[in-house]
Amino acid sequence: MVDDLTPKNCAVCGKMVVGHCRVDKWGQLFHNECEFMPCLNCGRATSLNDTHLPYNRHVCSHCIDKVVRKDAHIQWVYDRVQEIFGHNFLSLPGRIPVEIVSPDQMLKLHNSRDTSRIPSGLTRSGGAGFFGAKMHHKVYMLDYQHKVVFGGVLAHELLHVWQNEHHTVLPPNYCEGFCNLGTYLFYGYLDNELSRVHMEQMMNNPDPIYGDGFREVKQIFETEGGKNLENTIKILQERSKRRRSIF
Ligand SMILES: [Zn+2]
Ligand SMILES: [Zn+2]
Ligand SMILES: [Zn+2]
């Protein structure tokens, strides 16, 4: 009530907003004619003074200081992710190396040139098979990710590592849905403003694999799976075998 009459400044250019304007999902107002450059981590409209990167990537002033850059940051996030997996009965095959890469490096790793869709992470596994040789894994993470978002992506990738290590073969909706369950558990464990925004997005994601697939896996995890990740994957394997034999 009180706020309605107070003059507001545009989140993009900083000048006063009068009359019609737009609003981002955090309630920030900005002029119709000012360019909406959402923060890649939280979706806030960034101002002209914020961090603007190639390929239309932007980071707002709330997120820039929380970006994961150093090994110590990676370590901190990794420990949290591992803790959550422990609480949910899943253990990783040792400490997996994690490297932060630029968008160009990430696209190259994915064999892609689509600069409008730069993946946030990638897992590479290989090397097993001969004379009991151990498999080795590496996770690549995109730069400029806020520690909350970074942890969500890392949890997803580390569940790919787990599936690769155990030679798990699942259809994409279960494979990616299971990885996204890791992301969701990480966000739920943190339970802060930013992680809640991302949880809501996941629950509303219309994608058949990353959205529907995830919600189906979550449902199984919470019921038959007994909130146990390794049990859940066994159930997913059973179900996909049954489906393969039906069709
Ligand atoms: Zn403006
Ligand atoms: Zn932000
Ligand atoms: Zn994935």
Describe the structure.
By secondary structure, the protein is an alpha+beta fold. It has 2 domains: 1-64, no CATH class; 67-238, no CATH class. It is 43% helix and 13% strand. It contains 7 helices and 9 strands; from the N terminus they run ββββββαβαββααααα. The protein has a 3-stranded mixed β-sheet. Strands 1-2 form a two-stranded antiparallel ribbon. The protein has a two-stranded antiparallel sheet with strand order 3-4. Strand 5 (51-53) and strand 6 form a beta hairpin. The termini are far apart. The model has no long low-confidence stretch (mean pLDDT 94). The structure holds zinc ion (3 copies). One zinc ion binds at residues 156, 160, 176, 179.
List the helices and strands and how they pair.
Elements (H helix, E strand, L loop, with lengths): L7 E2 L6 E2 L3 E3 L5 E3 L19 E3 L3 E3 L11 H17 L10 E4 L1 H7 L11 E6 L9 E7 L4 H19 L6 H19 L2 H12 L3 H15 L6 H18 L1
Helix pairs in contact: 1-3, 1-4, 3-4, 4-5, 4-6
Bound molecules: zinc ion (ZN) (3 copies).
The site of one zinc ion has 7 residues, from strand 4.
